[in-house]
């Protein structure tokens, strides 16, 4: 029943509500100036992202300039602060050397006992059997060192020492590490070890020259060995010190294998 006290609209005698003007298809009704249309709770306009408080990142996103680690490989860092410093790398290597010292001591004890026993029997430390013990011990140490670093770097990029100090070896191409790349990082170590092995073998012959009274030949041999040892020492020192002035904190063996050492 209509209200008898309310005047009726002559154009709307039956009390119907006036029709609202229709908007063209796809357009939203205009809002008063300075106001935004209210959205249903929890929904955002299509194509727009919710605004975050200033200085905060949405969950799961990385701060500007940093790359997240990705599955299968590890993203190349874009921030210089993610490269492992020389001091941290040295600490990781020192821990690895302590670990590798255990089998090295055992091998050296066994070969040393063999050389001593041979000397007691033959009266010479440079006989074929003594030289053989020296070669066997050196090769065993080399194999253990190569196996240790190649396995850990080729699988996870972290040796035990690197895992303790929280750094990791990655490839600059953002591909997963493998054993080939890991062995390339050991190229300088392998070369220096083999050269030192040859030097040791020559030293055995020099001892024979001294025992035979041929001092001139022994002096020439030791002089040659001294020069080679000096060159190897300089190359090894440069390899380990190179991260101190390199922009990406790479050692020479990193440049050979195209790898980086980053914070994990």
TrEMBL record:
Pfam families: RDD (PF06271). GO terms for cellular component: plasma membrane. The chain crosses the membrane at residues 90-111, 131-152, 186-207, 219-242. Residues 1-62 are annotated as: Disordered. It is a multi-pass membrane protein. It is found in: Cell membrane. Its main location: membrane. PANTHER family: PROLINE-RICH ANTIGEN HOMOLOG, PROLINE-RICH ANTIGEN HOMOLOG-RELATED. This is RDD domain containing protein. It comes from Herpetosiphon aurantiacus (strain ATCC 23779 / DSM 785 / 114-95). The lineage of its organism: Bacteria, Bacillati, Chloroflexota, Chloroflexia, Herpetosiphonales.
């Amino acid at each position: 029943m209509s209200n008898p006290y309310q005047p009726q609209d002559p154009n709307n005698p039956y009390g119907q509500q006036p029709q609202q003007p229709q908007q063209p298809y796809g357009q939203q009704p205009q809002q008063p100036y300075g106001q935004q249309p209210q959205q249903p709770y929890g929904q955002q306009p299509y194509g727009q992202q919710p605004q975050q408080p200033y200085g905060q990142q949405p969950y799961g996103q990385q701060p500007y300039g940093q790359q997240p680690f990705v599955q299968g490989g590890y993203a190349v860092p874009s921030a210089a602060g993610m490269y492992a410093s020389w001091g941290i790398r040295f600490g990781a290597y020192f821990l690895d050397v302590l670990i590798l010292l255990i089998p090295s001591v055992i091998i050296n004890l066994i070969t040393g006992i063999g050389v001593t026993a041979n000397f007691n029997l033959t009266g010479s430390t440079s006989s074929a059997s003594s030289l053989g013990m020296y070669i066997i011990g050196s090769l065993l140490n080399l194999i253990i060192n190569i196996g240790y670093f190649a396995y850990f770097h080729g699988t996870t990029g972290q040796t035990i020492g690197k895992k303790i100090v929280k750094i990791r070896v990655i490839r600059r191409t953002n591909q997963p590490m493998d054993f080939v790349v890991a062995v390339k990082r050991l190229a300088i170590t392998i070369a220096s070890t083999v050269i030192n092995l040859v030097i040791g073998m020559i030293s055995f012959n020099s001892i024979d020259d001294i025992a035979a009274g041929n001092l001139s030949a022994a002096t020439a041999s030791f002089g040659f060995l001294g020069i080679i040892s000096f060159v190897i020492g300089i190359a090894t020192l440069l390899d380990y010190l190179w991260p101190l002035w390199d922009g990406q904190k790479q050692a020479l063996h990193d440049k050979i294998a195209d790898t980086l050492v980053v914070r994990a």
